Amino acid sequence: MLKKGIMDIRIYYHDTDAGGVVYYGTYLQYLEEARTEFLEKNHLSVESLRERGFLYAVRKCDITYRAPARYADTITCGATLKKVTAAQLVFHQTITHQTTGQLLVEAEVTIVSLTNDFKPTAIPEDLHQKFSGLIE
Known about the structure:
Blueprint: E1 5-10, H1 26-41, H2 46-51, E2 55-65, E3 74-84, E4 88-97, E5 103-114, H3 125-132
Antiparallel strand pairs: 1-3, 2-5, 3-4, 4-5
């Protein structure tokens, strides 16, 4: 298994504010895309998880903005699985400037497992084992 989701994103004008700097909320979208990439690279598509009854949502996001990304930059977004509990996945995520390697954003994102009626529930055992094998 790959154990890491990494993707490059080019910054477009619509990602920025009037000053050409990426709007702070847009980084949450980039982090989500990197987590999806992590799952898919490890043969866990969002659709296949949903079909199994494994729904999830962000429970907590602790994010530190270190430096801005700007229009026309290319950034690298990464996601690694840090911890698995009975009902949660905890990801460590980074966003760096592709050219300079400068750390722009660092986040810890906690995902909670949900039932079809959006109540917290245990991660199915086979998925829990698979996720546990992806911890870096």
